[in-house]
Amino acid sequence: MRNILVTGATGFLGQEISHRLMVLGYRVLGLVRDISDELAVVPLFGDLLETADFIGPDLPIEAVIHCAGHHPGETEDVEALHEDGTKRMVDEARRRGIRRFIHISAIGAGFTAPTRFQRSKWVSEQIVVNSGLDYTILRPHLMFGEGSATFERLEEAANRPWAVLPETHELIQPVYVGDVAEVAIRSLWLDRSVGQIYDIGGPHSMRLEDIVRHIARDSHFFRIWTFRIPKRYAASVLQRLGRVGPILTGEEWAFLQHEVTRQDVRWLIDFGILPHSLAVYYSPLT
Ligand SMILES: NC(=O)c1ccc[n+]([C@@H]2O[C@H](COP(=O)([O-])OP(=O)(O)OC[C@H]3O[C@@H](n4cnc5c(N)ncnc54)[C@H](OP(=O)(O)O)[C@@H]3O)[C@@H](O)[C@H]2O)c1
């Protein structure tokens, strides 16, 4: 049996990847921190922020899919997990003689990106690019699907008769978590993807307001009020509103300001994916 190591195996994307890999007949070794986790994967206990060795079966591993990372809305310890954690995983792969490394970064990762999340993702990418491993880097936009913390909040907002949202004209390309999982898995087979970085945005560009409208589509009484926040104050205003439970945190809002105006279609072509649309996912018929 072929063994794949998935980090972040208890997370939103990591679970999706692990499940799909197991359906395909792979054995998944999931890096987990908690012994109490109910898991279908073979557990490898360890914490990327600690130096202790991972504890688990000593099996030959073909590839790493490195999903452990923070959600775009989180700010605590992002640098530690994305930078030190990725370095730790790269070293672990080298030590175990694993050459193939699929790294999950994020849209807008860049040295001068607006959020700590994206800047630390850029550093993590540099670690992977300079590792000497056969890497593929995936940069998903905001992912939707069951288990997304952001979409749970948007769904909650859309379940009320009204929503108040920060006004934003930037277009977001939400991407289905299953499509990102599929790309990560197909990267394992596709030699052409070695040494590539793929931006992964969904098929439709939409404003935040449109996303909430799609989610609330079957509610006839739903109304949205938008309010304008000057861009440079937005993060701090939303952070303050955070105390009363806003729909987005300041960090998430800043992350969503990254507009994917140019659809990077290479991932659709290279991996043969027909991406799921958010409008269909939230259609009253589905
Ligand atoms: N969600 C999005 O919309 C989005 C968009 C762009 C990029 N991304 C990136 O995609 C990847 C997956 O995101 P997600 O939404 O699936 O995240 P998630 O649901 O928050 O899952 C994060 C995973 O990382 C693990 N983890 C956290 N700290 C760790 C540590 N110190 N050592 C080992 N494992 C640790 C968590 O384990 P525990 O269960 O033990 O906490 C969990 O399994 C991340 O790299 C994220 O930055 C996400």
The best one-word shape is: globular
CATH class of the domain at 3-145 and 175-200 and 261-275: Alpha Beta
The CATH topology assignment of the domain at 3-145 and 175-200 and 261-275 is Rossmann fold
Tell me the total number of β-strands: 11
> Percentage of helical residues?
25-40%
Total number of helices:
10
Q: In the CATH classification, which architecture of the domain at 3-145 and 175-200 and 261-275 applies?
A: 3-Layer(aba) Sandwich
Task: State the secondary-structure class.
Answer: alpha/beta
CATH homologous superfamily identity of the domain at 3-145 and 175-200 and 261-275: NAD(P)-binding Rossmann-like Domain
Our measurement of the CA-to-CA distance between the termini, rounded to an integer number of angstroms, reads 36 Å
Query: How are strands sequenced across the largest beta sheet?
Result: 3-2-1-4-5-6-10
From the alpha-carbon coordinates, what is the Rg to the nearest angstrom?
A: 19 Å
Beta-strand percentage?
Answer: 15-25%
Organism: Sulfobacillus acidophilus (strain ATCC 700253 / DSM 10332 / NAL)
InterPro entries: ComplexI_NDUFA9_subunit, Epimerase_deHydtase, NAD(P)-bd_dom_sf
Protein name: NAD-dependent epimerase/dehydratase
GO molecular function: protein-containing complex binding
Sum this structure up briefly.
The protein has 286 residues and is an alpha/beta fold. Helices cover 35% and strands 17% of the residues.
